[in-house]
């Protein structure tokens, strides 16, 4: 059995390789050759325990993850991913779930940018400068030539440490801007990424600030959570989701549907979008929304990719 901590996961896989793994995951999703029950969520106030199992032809995986949004001294998301052999059931690997979740979620955003952003896109706004925001920025600069990153966080004290971490992992030629308001952050951005656990929209309800952009909602994963305002849905030509479960799991889709701002026939999974070779449509200054709530299948494919590359590179700690 192999144990892979955060440092070892980073040695094993690159962001570009993880984005490729996410794209491969969408192809598995379209074939339906997997088992993935709806994730179990146990709520304790604002805190959540999630249990996310999945079975593919390659492996059995289980992710145990906690979400504690008020954490100050620890990451808000922590957990483990257990990988079992599909043929014998034996445990093959245990992986740091916080790191795996951060990289694979960043890669989900990176895949969305790869397939949905305008070819001319060069500026990204990150709303929420926690761990998820960091990996979204890293993924963005991995897939397209970003010249400017605009950052906004409700807690200003988190911005400078975030920039230090980001600078250590991206091209020094990229301009990083610390903005004092969301409006300023998104004004000149081609891509907007929200990476918060907010229960109210973090973007302004203003069409003129949201038009002609790719809007990626990464943070909200429960019916009580929302990051995106009404105006974003009235502007949207295409609404792409990472899985069908996203419709049931997040307020960012349930509320617009219940208020009839959108209808279900406007929503399409990314796997369907890719399988049918659809093109992003920004006509008439419309925008595109990509909404992710994550799924256990991502964790399965990500864990298998990391495990295989770790074996190739001799990375990880062998446990008896």
From TrEMBL:
Record GO cellular component, one term: cytoplasm
Superkingdom of origin organism: Bacteria
A Pfam family hit: OCD_Mu_crystall
Name of the protein described by the UniProt record: Ornithine cyclodeaminase family protein
Organism name: Virgibacillus halodenitrificans
């Amino acid at each position: 059995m192999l144990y892979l901590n955060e440092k070892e996961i980073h040695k094993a896989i690159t962001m570009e390789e993880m984005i490729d793994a996410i794209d491969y995951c969408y192809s598995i999703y379209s074939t339906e050759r997997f088992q993935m029950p709806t994730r179990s969520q146990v709520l304790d106030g604002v805190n959540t325990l999630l249990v996310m199992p999945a079975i593919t032809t390659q492996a059995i995986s289980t992710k145990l993850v906690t979400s504690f949004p008020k954490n100050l001294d620890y990451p808000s998301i922590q957990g483990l991913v257990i990988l079992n052999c599909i043929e014998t059931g034996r445990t093959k690997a245990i992986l740091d779930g916080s790191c795996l979740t951060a990289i694979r979620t960043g890669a989900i955003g990176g895949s969305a940018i790869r397939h949905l952003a305008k070819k001319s896109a060069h500026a990204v706004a990150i709303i929420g400068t926690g761990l998820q925001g960091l990996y979204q920025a890293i993924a963005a600069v991995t897939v397209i030539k970003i010249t400017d990153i605009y950052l906004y966080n409700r807690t200003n004290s988190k911005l400078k440490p975030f920039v230090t971490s980001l600078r250590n992992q991206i091209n020094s030629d990229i301009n990083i801007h610390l903005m004092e308001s969301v409006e300023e952050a998104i004004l000149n951005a081609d891509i907007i990424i929200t990476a918060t656990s907010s229960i109210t929209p973090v973007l302004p309800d203003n069409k003129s600030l949201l038009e002609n952009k790719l809007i990626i909602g990464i943070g909200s994963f429960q019916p009580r959570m929302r990051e995106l305002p009404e105006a974003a849905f009235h502007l949207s030509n295409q609404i792409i989701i990472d899985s069908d479960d996203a419709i049931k799991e997040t307020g960012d889709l349930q509320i617009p549907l219940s208020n009839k701002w959108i209808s279900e026939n406007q929503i399409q999974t990314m796997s369907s979008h890719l399988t049918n070779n659809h093109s992003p449509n920004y006509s008439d200054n419309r925008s595109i929304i990509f909404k992710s709530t994550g799924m256990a299948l991502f964790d399965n494919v990500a864990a298998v990719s990391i495990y295989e590359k770790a074996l190739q590179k001799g990375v990880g700690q062998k446990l008896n």
